[in-house]
Amino acid sequence: MKLLLENWRKYLAEESQPIKKLRIFDFDETIAYTDSEVRATRPEGNEIGFPDQEAWDNFIEEMGSVEDAEAAGWSFDFSDYSRVLNPEENEMITQIIADVIAANERNPERELYVITARGPEARGPIRRYLKSLGLDPKAFENVIGLAGASKRDEIERIIQKHTDKDGKTSIESIHFFDDSDIHLNDVKQLRNDFPEIEDIRIKKVFPGGISNVKQENKMDKYLKDHPYMEPDGLQAEGEGDDCFSRKTFDGKVKCMKRTKGYGQERAQATVAKVLRAKKEIKEAYNKD
Q1: How many CB atoms lie within 10 A of CB 77?
Q2: How many CB atoms lie within 10 A of CB 67?
Q3: What are the start-end ranges of the E strands in 155-271?
Q4: Of 54, 49, 264, 35, the residue nearest 179 (C-alpha)
Q5: pLDDT of the residue at 225
Q6: Is residue 47 helix, strand or coil?
């Protein structure tokens, strides 16, 4: 009886402990690499495939949205994403998930989510795959399939779940892991929407590593708002921007595309304008 009462008190204590931390992971090319791809039919009838997130992101950036592409005559087949095809585990991420689960067993102040751009029908296959890796699906608050909807909006709904009637949230920390620049840049806006949550870490997952998506500084904001204009002294040109530490012009352009989600033309124009203002444009081009 004493043991039963102790377990009951422990259960009540865990139930009453507020959630302070959200740990959120994408699935494809974050938790696992799969053979799934989007198959598309062009307006003229021939088919192409988008085998990875980068290829799909670049296409959507050019078209504007899936709806815009469909209006232009494209059609899409997302059926691969109802299954987990030939998955290859990203052990770096699954170890982080295992560590989060272990930490939560000691101190249950976290909620752990997988939020995927796949549709809701993928939830079962993803949960079965996680279980096959030895990760207890019961440790996850949910596997959420958004069918392409905004991950930022979904995370905002989770935050609101932990917000009282006076508008104060118990959430103190959010760590978000994803490989897609589109989703990373979208979720990054939470830093502006919820300034009271001081620890919001946006982490880009790529083969072999993870990098932090930094807080936007004044130069970042200026270049985003004025991509075809000269910097105006808000901050020394390129200061604090790792892309301008690259040696070559092409290296700077590739970095801008990868870290800021710019298209080729916008990235080239931005780099050229900054280097021209610094009177380095000829040197940069000559090096390439």
Answers
A1: 13
A2: 10
A3: 173-178, 199-206, 209-213
A4: 54
A5: 54
A6: strand
Of 47, 38, 46, nearest to 85 by C-alpha is 38
**Spatial contact of 77 and 42, defined as CB atoms under 8 Å apart:** no
At 186-231, the pLDDT tens digits run 999 999 999 999 999 999 999 889 999 876 554 455 545 544 443 3
Closest CA to 175 of 26, 45, 279, 43: 26
Select from 24, 14, 16, 31 the least CA-distant residue to 104. 14
R_g of the chain computed on alpha carbons: 22
Which single residue is written with the structure tokens 């709806």?
A: 67
143 Cβ contact list (under 8 Å, min separation 6): 113, 114, 116, 123, 126, 127, 130, 137
Q: Determine phi and psi for 202, rounding to 5 degrees.
A: -105, 120
pLDDT of residue 224: 52
- Which tokens sit at 181? 């620049």
Longest CA–CA span in the chain (Å) reads 82
118-141 pLDDT tens trace: 888 999 999 999 999 999 878 887
The residue assigned the tokens 């752990």 is: 112
